[in-house]
Write a structure and sequence with these properties.
The protein is α/β, with parallel strands linked by helices. The chain has one domain: 3-Layer(aba) Sandwich (Rossmann fold). Helix content is 44%, strand content 21%. The strands form 2 sheets. Strands 1, 2, 3, 4, 5 and 6 form a 6-stranded parallel sheet that branches. A two-stranded antiparallel ribbon has the order 7-8. The longest helix is centred in the C-terminal third of the chain and has 31 residues, at 158-188. The radius of gyration is 16 Å and the shape is globular. 39% of the residues are buried.
Length: 189
Amino acid sequence: MSHPLRVVTVNGSPHLPSRTGVVLDALLDQLRESVDVVVHKVEIADLVGEPLAATPESASARLREDLDAIERADVILAGSPVYKGSYTGLFKYVFDLVEPSALVDVPVVVVATGGSERHQLVLDHQLRPLFSFFQAATSALGIYAHTSEFAKYEIASGALLSRIDRVAQRALSAARTTTSLRELNSAAL
């Protein structure tokens, strides 16, 4: 890859700080250890209170910048706390405004945080189908982290840190093939 890896994190939490943000930052730290990255952070909490947009063209300047970064990303780290069995509504709202063909073959790591282990299926039943619509290259490994793995807003679980390291390495492997896949598939679209 001839340019720094363009990594976009999307933190679906409507509150800052958030455990979801802590996991996304830990993933970023792992990526930074291996490759030069340019990071754009989409913080849903920063969008709370902004006027809603029905189309990307009517989006605020801040949201339009976030959408452009998502659509140009080499890797997307997308996370949300679990709210009533799914990702947050504002998380989905942002992706509703993304151009449907912009994420074809873009590596996406899905992350969810919740109050107990019982919510971990949100990765497979909510987040993966969303990115499947975009034909993104969603990593086979996602990260689900529950409250007991944190001490306030710090990771307190060696097992979670190990999962983060493993997922980051997979994301890097996927990113190395992204350019050729995007070129191949854009010619076929």
